[in-house]
């Protein structure tokens, strides 16, 4: 069953020159060194297998190849530079790391305009020149049903730009500080939490302020969702970095590593609403992101498809 929260179609970028990005290492505690000779081929094989699994499950996947000619090591994570929204709206975002700014590509936006109904494209990317960043659905976890943008504060989520986005796209911002067990701030909100139609995955203990923690939990529950409270250890296994999609049925796409970290009780709650779809991407995860980061959901209406005469 299709819902606003679970898109039927996605964009994914096929990485031919994958490597761990040195420009993002300083604030991404999930990132590890992957500088071995077979890293890029292994990442490519993982990507292709993930796409095949998603398509077999009924998800429409638009794949774009990245040759690496522009030195874009994180191109496999397109959810940070654009997002799409019901009503035909598209947003383009300013990126924190300089080499990530080269990931934006007009051909992706042209595909969206050609195959889906796009009424406007709001481009915030020029604000990079002012040192501002708002890294899309990495920085913001969007509740498309309750119209709430959950945001862990970081230099990848500028508060002024967040307010501007929320005013343009009609979301209520809920901001909070979040940190891991070592006290390192969480670099992207979508490693901490993911929102499905009937449930939400989140590690509440990583929100140190009790009042904000309570507010976040209450707002998630207000929309009728079951809150699945993850542990910091599960977050370290990317259990929060998952995305709900619609294929032949409603799905929760997550990594095989994340799936192994979930408890039977947590899995039972998810499976009341969605089928778990684990994807094996251990090499790609060394770059500090997982399945959610790889998938840019398309929340647009598809144009009627012409049939051949």
UniProtKB/TrEMBL annotation:
<dbReference type="InterPro" id="IPR014541">
    <property type="entry name" value="Amdntrnsf_FN0238"/>
</dbReference>
<protein>
    <submittedName>
        <fullName>Arginine deiminase-related protein</fullName>
    </submittedName>
</protein>
<feature type="region of interest" description="Disordered">
    <location>
        <begin position="16"/>
        <end position="36"/>
    </location>
</feature>
<dbReference type="Pfam" id="PF19420">
    <property type="entry name" value="DDAH_eukar"/>
</dbReference>
């Amino acid at each position: 069953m299709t819902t606003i929260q679970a898109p039927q179609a996605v964009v994914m970028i096929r990485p031919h020159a994958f490597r761990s990005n040195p420009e993002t290492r300083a604030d991404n505690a999930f990132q590890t060194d992957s500088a071995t000779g077979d890293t890029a081929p292994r990442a490519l094989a993982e990507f292709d297998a993930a796409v095949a699994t998603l398509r077999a499950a009924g998800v429409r996947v638009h794949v774009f190849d990245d040759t690496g000619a522009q030195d874009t090591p994180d191109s496999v994570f397109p959810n940070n530079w654009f997002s799409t929204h019901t009503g035909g709206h598209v947003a383009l975002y300013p990126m924190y790391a300089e080499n990530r700014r080269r990931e934006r590509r007009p051909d992706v936006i042209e595909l969206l305009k050609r195959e889906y109904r796009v009424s406007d494209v709001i481009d915030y990317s020029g604000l990079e020149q002012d040192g501002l960043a708002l890294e899309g659905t990495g920085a913001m976890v969007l509740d498309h049903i309750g119209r709430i943008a959950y945001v862990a504060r970081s230099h990848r989520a500028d508060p002024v730009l967040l307010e501007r986005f929320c005013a343009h796209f009609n979301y209520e911002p809920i901001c909070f500080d979040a940190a891991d067990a070592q006290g390192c701030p969480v670099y992207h909100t979508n490693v901490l939490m993911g929102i499905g139609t009937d449930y939400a995955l989140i590690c509440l203990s990583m929100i140190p302020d009790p009042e904000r923690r309570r507010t976040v939990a209450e707002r998630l529950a207000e929309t009728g969702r079951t809150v699945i409270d993850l542990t910091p250890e599960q977050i370290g296994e990317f259990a929060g970095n998952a995305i709900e999609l619609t294929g032949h049925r409603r799905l929760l796409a997550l990594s095989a590593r994340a799936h192994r970290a979930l408890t039977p009780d947590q899995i039972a709650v998810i499976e009341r609403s969605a089928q778990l779809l684990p994807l094996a991407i251990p090499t790609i995860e060394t770059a500090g992101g997982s399945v959610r980061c790889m998938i840019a959901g398309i929340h647009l209406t598809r144009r009627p498809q012409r049939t051949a005469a």
